[in-house]
Design goal:
Blueprint (H helix, E strand, L loop, with lengths): L6 H9 L4 H13 L2 H14 L8 H16 L8 E2 L5 H18 L7 E5 L5 E4 L5 E4 L3 E5 L8 E12 L8 E4 L3 E5 L3 E6 L5 E8 L2 E5 L14 E3 L3 E6 L4 E6 L12 E8 H12 L3 E3 L8 E7 L3 H9 L5 E4 L4 E4 L5
Parallel strand pairs: 6-7, 16-19
Antiparallel strand pairs: 1-14, 2-5, 3-4, 4-6, 5-6, 6-9, 7-8, 8-11, 9-10, 10-13, 11-12, 13-14, 15-17, 18-19
Helix pairs in contact: 1-5, 2-3, 3-5
Length: about 325
């Protein structure tokens, strides 16, 4: 592993203060060494667990009151909300301290179980409470062997679809690097990959409370920062503009991957490239930067990477070269 990871850039990604250029630098760094994503996953887990503890009785009581108020407003349109900035210099100090602890202490006897999927691999997990989790490629889920606290808590890096067993006495919480998702019993999809410019939570059934990470470690959850998401809705957290917005969607499209399907709907080619790389485990490169915003629509199920690219090439807009080492997407683009 490199001796000097880009701490400042990593901190900016976690704090939601990264520019598109800096995001690309982090993405390039993650791809340089197979150990880099593992390091970043550990830092994300530490960053997620840093705010005020969710298991304290005071915090739980406050959230219970908040949940009741949100439930009463379930049908109310929620405006775009801007999140406060986090000073990346402080985040750097936190990350450096966190990594020093990881290096010196190592794993703890109480460390949760972890399922890690490399690129090209997907899996299904059954949790101790009866909940089922579909874990996508290039993703990591941490979970306890048994849920024994007042909340059922897991940590996610990447993408997963959850079918949560209903338990009104023990809420289910998914911790992310940039916030958390809290439910009682429902089904929803979360997409939260390192280096991506957005975090997305899509609800199929039930309701979900999306809680963006507080800009200050001592700041409590407030109603104005929390978004209630209902079925066939998606909440998008922009890490570039530091805002949260909600939009209607066809929710089942977000879970197509659990049925071995890839769905693109006016998807920018830059995002298509990331999806194909994670799905097939083959590095994907765009021949020109101006190809990235070109959009693509298509549906693929259990097809090889070459078969997918053959179909895409029929558009006569894109062409490709596929070798054993990488996929190069080229063409005249969308100009």
């Amino acid at each position: 592993m490199d001796e000097s990871p880009p701490w400042e850039l990593l901190a900016k990604v976690l704090a939601g203060e990264v520019s598109p250029t800096e995001q690309q630098q982090v993405t390039d760094w993650l791809a340089q060494n197979p150990e880099h994503p593992a390091l970043f996953a550990k830092l994300q887990a530490a960053w997620t667990s840093n705010p005020t503890p969710a298991s304290s009785s005071e915090t739980e009581a406050a959230f219970s009151n908040l949940w009741s108020r949100l439930d009463a407003e379930a049908q109310t349109a929620r405006p775009v909300r801007r999140l406060g900035w986090v000073r990346w210099a402080a985040a750097v100090a936190l990350l450096l301290g966190t990594w020093a602890i990881w290096q010196s202490v190592g794993t703890s006897p109480d460390e949760p179980l972890a399922k890690v999927n490399p690129k090209g691999e997907r899996s299904v997990l059954k949790l101790s409470d009866g909940s089922t989790v579909w874990l996508n490629a290039d993703s990591r889920l941490e979970f306890p062997e048994t849920f024994s606290d007042s909340i059922r808590e897991v940590r996610l890096v990447g993408e997963a679809f959850f079918k949560v067993a209903h338990n009104p006495h023990q809420p289910f919480v998914v911790r992310l690097a940039t916030g958390s998702v809290r439910v009682l019993g429902t089904s929803f999809n979360i997409r939260s990959y390192p280096g991506d410019s957005t975090v997305e939570t899509t609800v199929l059934t039930g309701k979900v409370a999306f809680v963006p990470k507080s800009p200050r470690s001592n700041q409590r959850v407030s109603q104005k920062d929390t978004v209630l998401v209902l079925p066939n809705s998606r909440v998008i957290q922009s890490l570039v503009r530091a805002e949260v917005r909600q939009q209607p969607v066809v929710a089942v499209l977000s879970t197509a991957w659990t049925d071995d399907r890839i769905e693109f709907r006016d998807t920018p080619l830059g995002e298509v490239a990331k999806t194909l790389e994670r799905w097939y485990g083959t590095p994907v490169v765009l021949a020109r930067a101006d190809l990235a915003p070109c959009t693509l629509t298509g549906s693929f199920r259990r097809q090889s990477l070459r078969e997918v690219m053959d179909v895409i090439a029929l558009t006569r807009v894109f062409d490709y070269e596929l070798s054993g080492e990488r996929l190069l997407i080229k063409g005249r683009g969308c100009q």
